[in-house]
Structures are given as C-alpha cells and as structure tokens.
C-alpha cells in the first residue's frame, strides 16, 4: 500500500490499486474529473457528504500542481 500526502492511498485490494481518497473508495481521478467539468467544492461535498472540505481542497491543489508541472 502506498500513501501520498496522508490523504491519498493506493492499495491493490481497493479499486485495483487506483489512487483513492484515504478511507474511501472514491478515486482521486473522479474528483479531478468533477472539478474539470465545473463542479464546485461545495457541490462535490453536497454529493459526497462523507468527504471533508480540507481533503477535497488538498486533492484540488494536487491536481493543479500536477497540471502546472506537466505544462
């Protein structure tokens, strides 16, 4: 099992090892996709009330940092 930033984990027994938000089965890629489709953090939290705002904000920051590094 690999853990990134304390909020993302990858475990072969959870969704075939795809990175998920720690303690959930919500793929990080799914959150990235929602943001890219124009969903706000508030809308994501409304749909997934088990998520915490600070976790979603960190995932969004990781996505933006990754995008900047790949540009």
Can you tell me about this structure?
With 71 residues, this protein is mainly alpha-helical. It has a single domain, classed as Arc Repressor Mutant, subunit A, CATH 1.10.10.10. Helices cover 48% and strands 11% of the residues. It has 3 helices and 3 strands; from the N terminus they run βββααα. It has helices at 28-36, 41-47, 53-70, and strands at 2-4, 8-10, 20-21. The protein has a 3-stranded antiparallel β-sheet, with no helix packed on it. α1 crosses α3. The longest helix has 18 residues, at 53-70. It is globular and about 30 Å long. The termini are far apart.
Give structural attributes.
single chain; 71 residues; mainly alpha; Arc Repressor Mutant, subunit A; 3-stranded antiparallel sheet; 3 helices; 3 strands
Distance between the termini: 29 Å
Strand content: 5-15%
Overall average residue pLDDT: 87
Superfamily (CATH H level) name = Winged helix-like DNA-binding domain superfamily/Winged helix DNA-binding domain
- What is the global morphology? globular
Q: Could you give the count of β-strands?
A: 3
CATH class: Mainly Alpha
Helical coverage, percent range: 40-55%
The low-pLDDT segments are none
CATH architecture grouping: Orthogonal Bundle
Radius of gyration: 12 Å
Order of strands in the sheet with most strands: 1-2-3
Specify the number of helices: 3
């Amino acid at each position: 099992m690999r853990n990134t930033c304390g909020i993302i984990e990858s475990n072969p027994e959870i969704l075939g090892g795809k990175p998920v938000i720690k303690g959930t089965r919500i793929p990080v890629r799914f959150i990235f996709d929602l943001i890219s489709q124009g969903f706000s953090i508030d809308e994501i939290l409304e749909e997934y009330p088990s998520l915490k705002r600070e976790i979603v904000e960190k995932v969004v920051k990781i996505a933006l940092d990754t995008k900047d590094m790949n540009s």
